[in-house]
Amino acid sequence: MLRAKNRLGLVFFPAFDWAISPTHPEREERLLYTQDQVFEEGIADIEGIKFFNPGMATEKDVQRVHFCVPDVMSRVTESHLISAGGAIKAAEALMEKEVDKAFAIVRPPGHHAQRVVFGDRGFCIINIEAVMLENIRQRFGHRRIAIVDTDCHHGDGTQDIYWNDRDTLYISFHQDGRTLYPGTGFLDEFGGPAAIGYNINVPLPPETGEEGFLYVLDNLVMPILEEYKPDLVVNSAGQDNHYTDPITNMNFTAHGYAKLNHRLNPDIAVLEGGYSIEGALPYVNLGIILAMAGLDYSHVREPDYDPTKLKQSPRITEYIKELCEKIYERWCRKEGIARETLKGKEYVLRPRNVYYDTDGIMEEQTQKFKVCPNCSGLNTIHSRSDWGYEIFAVSIPRDACPACIDEGYKIYKETPEGKYFKTFLQDRVNDTYMSK
Amino acid sequence: MGLDMGGTHVDAVIIDRGNIVDIAKTPADRSDLFGSIWATLDNLLSGKKVSRIERINLSTTVSTNAIIEGKTAPVGMIIESGPGMDPSFMSCGSENIFITGYVDHRGREIKPFDPVEIQEAASRFKQQDIKTCAVVAKFSTRNPLHEINIQKMLKDEFCPITMGHTLSGKLNFPRRVFTSYLNCAVYHVFKAFCDSIRKAMQKENIHVPVNVLKADGGTISLDVGQQYPVNTILSGPAASLMGACAFNAGDKDAVFLDIGGTTTDISFVADGVPLFEPLGINIGPYNTLVRAIYSVSIGLGGDSAIHIENGELKIGPQREGFPMALGGQVPTPSDAMIVLGLLDFGNKDRAILAMKLLGEKLGMDARAASEVVYEKMADIIKQKVDSLIKDINSRPVYTVKELLYGKRLKPEYVSIIGGPARAMAPVLEKKFNLPCRVPENYEAANAVGAALAKTTAEITLLADTASGVLSVPEIGLYKRIDRNFTLDMARQKALELLKQRASILGAEGSETESEITEESSFNMVRGFYTSGKNIRIKAQVKPGLLYELRGVNYA
Ligand SMILES: [Zn+2]
Ligand SMILES: [Zn+2]
């Protein structure tokens, strides 16, 4: 009998009866071949690997993270709640020490879902990692968490949610936003006033291969994690950097993903994107499962794997080297950058437009962060969609000082009912949520 | 006629359309299993019209014993593992050859096997004097051609050659390897047994179908059993459960307990149908794909040894000889039940002494100690059953519908068989808060279960209209279909093939009630177009009994 070195919890929920539409990349078939591979390899028989069914995230779990317009239940389907519930189940098994590591292979994904939700962006409606993390923070206490997002797309939703939270370090590797959806994730997106430097983007050139990814991991990510000293490392395990992925342009391999996961050594991995459902997903998921379980993954290989074809060009290697140096230098200088940026400021404004590609909605949004010497600072969001809904949201951060708490309630109360389509209050200190 | 070979006895029964006609019981001689079986049949048949017998169903421990006692033949394994896990842990034969070549999850040949490697394997086997071999390839259930072609290369040199895809349509490569190994390893022992049966039948002038019981509570013909003897392992608990089902017809969820001297076996029925192991049964160190009734055995029975450890009462899991009432040295639950007047055998004074000794350590009298033992035994069973139900109800599901509205097992009664069954019923009724049924004549349950078992079969059909291939591994079917093949056609095809399959396995026309147990159809989208459908169907002969038992008659 094969025995895993690390006890691994798997929440494998392919949701075979749910799709965005019959021919959409995010459809019933997406995890079918992964299931075939996992079953055929006999993963369930390995001693130490345990399968869990997902639970269902609650409305409250979602409200801790998002402002859904008009409300949670009219935005999400059961599948979204199950997907987030699957991530929560994985984290819960870890927190309750039933397992040493956990991997939620669930769908739909979530890392493009931002704080405000008018609809579906990049196949995401709710951010399943964030819903998971805030659920376990609430139940198991505050934790310093690092999220390493290895999806090919910039995780703009996760970035937005943790923009001003220095207890959550967000590092995203992705294909350069000048060449891929959602078009964000540049070096200067560096975190809100309370967390400057704690949002790190690594925009990689198209055709980056195994060498480049592992270079970024070894020379940038691991040193930063060592300095940050997180209690928990989460891998947003998007798999669309694979050389066969139909919607991206990278050259990463299943073996590379396994190696990356092995070296990163995350406590929890959550499946994000990845749409090469036959050529990549079965092998990448298997590689990650074996790596997390501490088993040999050296035999994991795609049917058409050809290392010479996938060799990274020296030009890209050189570019990535310089990029990592630049980013690491900024990380080291983050406090100085924060002082310069915030000098004499009482508020920092973050205005932007957000496009909901799946639903075709354009949103115009301004987030306003108070620069508070005692906490992360109260913040508000004023937003309007081109479908005519205008909302106002007040958010009291997890570490808010009494003054910021009071101010938050005051602003909410003084906003007259009917002034906006909806006014929201999210009080993270007392874990309460209101809307009018 | 049904016959069950237990650890200590061989039981046989004659049933006439649901009525028990006669029962025979003889001690089992483990050194001569065939002799014990024949003696029992002989005994049962004497004075009866042999010509009126329509069929004989046997549940035998021949294969099981061979595996457990290590009396198996050396096997050469040819394993085509493809990319994935490091396959070295699958070495189970006397020689294990890992060959190159690879078929993917959709059955596409990615890389052919190398005939030179097969020839080298064959000569290695011959050097070791290995006569049987198994050929197992990853994803051979999706495309068996590598296994078939390798088998063709070797068929004149080895016998038998077990091909992995013929044993189960389920995906699980390591289990396919182990199951194929075991099938070869017990082949010759089981074949010798079959030959003896055939010879004896000839001699006695009995010319009726003989079937053997499988671990799933169904039967296969002796001839098919000889080809796939691995299916006959661990058929004892299956016979017992089928027997208990015969005594408890109906369509409810229930717990089935078989409380013996050393162990208690726990099984379940859902809507009146036995629950199966999700993939297959485990035997010794091997996980297999042998379809089997779900049965969990705990080390707790009437003769379990009772000890006090750190002031706490501990029952089982070992047996240390007889109950004190029968001259043993250690107190047992049977002693407690004798003191309480619930059982009546052996020397009651010795039983009282046993409970008195136990009571001294617990600071109570013999009667109070007996009560404590009796309650504790029921508590252990109840706790175990509860935890099993929790596990069963949290088995993985893969669709939103199943997760939200899937069937949950919720027993409505408990059926108890075995020596202490009647004695334990009142206390279990209290603990479970459910009616506890103790069937009449349950001593014959195993033989009755064997007699009434019908042929079972299962097939797995996969139609991939993008590749244009239909495959049914259990019957080695692998053929082209056109792009317009639909789920409806797949359903019909599956039922038709299942019927054929069942009749080859020994079923008679009237007894095969077929059903589709799983079905799905996925749109396959490549690029931005639907390229075909991936249709998956599982069909089975509905498990159950040939006849409902009508009353209990002794002739
Ligand atoms: Zn992506
Ligand atoms: Zn403050």
Number of helices of chain A: 12
Mean pLDDT score of chain B: 92
CATH topology of the largest domain in chain A: Arginase, Chain A
**Fraction of residues in helix of chain B:** 25-40%
Give the C-alpha Rg of chain B. Answer: 26 Å
By secondary-structure content and strand pairing, the structural class of chain A works out as: alpha/beta
The figure for the number of domains of chain A is 2
Strand content of chain A: 15-25%
Strand order of the largest sheet of chain A: 2-1-4-10-9-6-7-8
Structural class of chain B: alpha/beta
Short description:
Chain A is of the alpha/beta class.
How would you describe the overall organization of this protein?
With 436 residues, chain A is α/β, with parallel strands linked by helices. Chain A is 32% helix and 23% strand. In chain A, the strands form 3 sheets. Chain A has an 8-stranded parallel beta sheet with strand order 2-1-4-10-9-6-7-8, with helices on both faces. The longest helix of chain A has 19 residues, at 210-228. The two termini of chain B are 15 Å apart. Chain B is globular, with a radius of gyration of 26 Å. The model of chain B has no long low-confidence stretch (mean pLDDT 92). The relative contact order of chain B is 0.12. The chains are: A alpha/beta (436), B alpha/beta (555). At the A-B interface, helix 1, helix 4 and helix 9 of A face helix 5, helix 12, strand 26 and strand 27 of B. One zinc ion (ZN) binds at residues 372, 374-375, 377, 400-401, 403-404 of chain A.
